Amino acid sequence: MKRIRFLACLVFTLLLIVPAAMGQEDAGPIEPSAPELMNPEAHISYPPPVYVVRDSVDIRGTVTLEAMRNFFIEFRPLVLDMMMAEDEAEQEEEAQWFPATLPRIEAVEDDVLGAWNTVTLRDGLYELRLTINTGDAMPAYYRVSPIRVENNPPFAAEEQMMAEEPAGGMDEAPAAEPAEEPEEEMSGEPEAETMPDSRPRVTATVNANVRAGDSTVYAVVGFLLDGESALIKGVSSRGTGWYYIELANGRSGFIYPFIVNTEGDLSDLPRINPPPPPPPTPVLVPTAVPAQQQPQSNVDLVIAHIQIHPHGVKCGQTYEIQATVRNVGGGNAPSGGLILARDSGQNGTAGPQTTQIAFGALNAGATQVVVGHLTPTVHVETLHHITLHIDHDNRVVEINENNNVAATAPYHLASGC
Q1: pTM score over 0.70
Q2: DSSP state of 264
């Protein structure tokens, strides 16, 4: 009951401080309310509870446990039913955790644990969880909540309304002004018609990411939901066809041309130079653990019932991947992970295209249906094979790693790009 009252107070406080949080960059640091409850060797120090974040957030803290094998950070939406749960086990069943950072194997002391990209999340309350695998049956956890994600603050609209409001009140308006309006109407002069906006636009045909550059290697800076439109400011100078658009919140970025419909004159679009691509992420090679020190686990993850819709697509058309994840072992998987989906064609020199699909925690014998999307753009007019590798980054300790790969029937990719 103490935890319930504490969480309720935090949410109430957060609702009260949102207007003040807009100036939090100039405010002093917020210290945790109960520092004596923090494990000095495993905790998140930033962001603290009752805090407002947006865009990409550096999560800071410390992980220096001697038995640490790896650690990562997850998030999930914070809902009222979850906060009213009687115990920790009941809370863990309320909502699924999603990966916020990739696993790390090196110790960190009062530094950045990872970056949490909140751009594609809906505004609202969230909870962070630091998970530390130590080789024991259960990992060590540290949770921070509530955290408010606010990428689209409501204050901009209020400020615009205040700027458009007349300087004087209604009582100060001259009495003669209402009488002048009919005279203007009787003058016979036509009112100025509002010209339609003929500027070029895109309209998303699926929920689409907007990126910093004209490739999927660039970071996501925003999104355009199915049916939403945005102004086209230009097109990539590299010849990739990606449009440079402006979102409703003022952010600009590149969007893939084959998942949008266009309107307006596109013949004279400015050529926009994308920024240099980011350097490749270094691959961390974990230190081998002697067999006698390997953690005991009865988790065994497999993939079944893989389907793609539609089964035959054209180049540049997005298809859906649906699969069932099953824990056939006798132990519980307390955290989720990622599935690597790989689409490989049989001609050309380009490599396979990939995407990642998240899955949540799985108790023994439990199943979970996951969905991902992929847009093939290479190896046209040939057969394509799709393979799925569950937990490809070894986030979950299993008793059997030899049954983690499954494949679908091949499909034919027609031309059309």
Answers
A1: no
A2: S
